[in-house]
Amino acid sequence: MIAILLLLAGCTADAGKASPPPATPLDPAAAAAPTSQGPSTNAPATAASDAGTTSSDADTASTFGPMPDLAVVSSDGRVAVVRDGAMSAAVTGLLTADGSAVVATTATTTDGKPSTVVVWQGIHNGAELGRITLAGNLTPIATDPAGKAVAFTEPNADSPGGTVVVVATPEGQQFSHAYTSELQPEGFSNVYVDGSAIPAGLFVIEYLDPPPADRTAPRRYRVRVVDTTSGDLALPFDLRKKGQTVDEQMLGFGRTHVLSQTNGLLFTLYRGIDDDEQGYAFVHTLGFVNGVYCLDLPQQLDLAELPGAVALIDGESTLAVVSGNGTVSEFVIDDITDASKTPAPITTSAVWTGADRSGPAVAANGSTLLVGQSDALRWIDSTTLSVSAVQHWDMQIEAVTLLPSGNAIAAGTRRISEITPDGQLAAELPLPGDFGPVARVVTVPG
Predict the structure, then answer these.
(1) Tell me: the pLDDT tens digits for 252-298?
(2) Rounded to the nearest 5°, which phi and psi values hold at 49?
(3) 308 beta partners
(4) How far is CA 253 from CA 46, 153, 213, 326, 400, in A?
(5) Rounded distance, CA 443 to CA 31, Å?
(6) How is 124-156 classified by DSSP, letter by letter?
(7) Local structure of residue 218 (DSSP, 8 states)
(8) End-to-end distance of the chain based on CA atoms, in angstroms?
(9) Structure confidence at residue 415 (pLDDT)
(10) Nearest by Cα to 444 from 26, 68, 66, 31
(11) Beta partners for 163?
(12) How many Cβ atoms are within 10 Å of 322's Cβ, its own excluded?
């Protein structure tokens, strides 16, 4: 699962020596005894398209076991880890793209000036993998696919509205450049220059207008690539038209995203608003070999108006786009990257119906797609796009993941719960008290 903290994505139609306090360690706290909340007693009636699935008033008796090892990421830039059945304290930082480590940051001072302590901590055992101190009050935004290089930003004090971009590894700072425009890193390219410790390119969003008073309002932007050898801002290439660069301005909202490590692609579900259109939706595809492409979506999804989400299924060979109205579209990823093929949906189907049109949280494992929406969890067979099980839980679901066993991990209402397809509560833990809304739950790689 994706570990890049992405806000927006562009598209094209076709060191001091002071001893600062250490970053908060990810040592598991004592696990609180879980309390079964059980299926919701006031669950809405099961939709017609859910007929034949398990009942929402299933037996609430549960056999508790330890919660599987997980990383939980909040929408306000905090990470907590479940290890050996216990929840760690939350740290400020981000999860690396490969899910192997947490990059934790602590603001401090060195020689009377702001500085940032950066600690790489292994997910499996909490071991410290690296520790450096960087000048400035930096915010970590994105990592490279290997989880070593991290892109940080801070405001450019010498240019209002500008950005300082810093790239560092556990060996120290590798790049720093001040820009006069506001930049938001998306992810690194997978191209290296001989002898370089970091990728040659960093994809960024360049905002073209000042921040609006309404933080939820759309902003005009374009995609650029930072050359980490020179600091220059370059144009990205078209993912499907090799050698052709893309220079297009967009106005829109970023939504959810998913990273395919196998394909080297980042998919972002996006709503754009342009001067000559009332609204439209697309999936922005960012290829880490320096390419971008915009994937048009079927109108049945109604994602110009409704919230949605994206997931990778069938070994990251297929992209699923899920709408709050219960409609799901699937795309073959090879069709997107191969210019000789047409990247059209292989199927679009109304999987469930109902009055609830709230934003879905999605995850997948193998050919099973898991969708959480409000208090409902739906297990969906991606080969037939049919609901195989549905459970209503007394939780406002914020994020989900799907275990190889078929059990769901749902986060919301200040806790995370492991729920079986037949409605049993297998494990549960409270979230740290200072944790914000959950943006992602990520299983720890083996």
Answers:
(1) 656 678 889 888 889 988 776 655 454 578 888 888 876 888 888 99
(2) -75, -5
(3) 323
(4) 32, 21, 15, 21, 22
(5) 18
(6) TT--EEEEEEEES--EEEEE-TTS--EEEEEE-
(7) -
(8) 14
(9) 95
(10) 68
(11) 155, 179
(12) 28
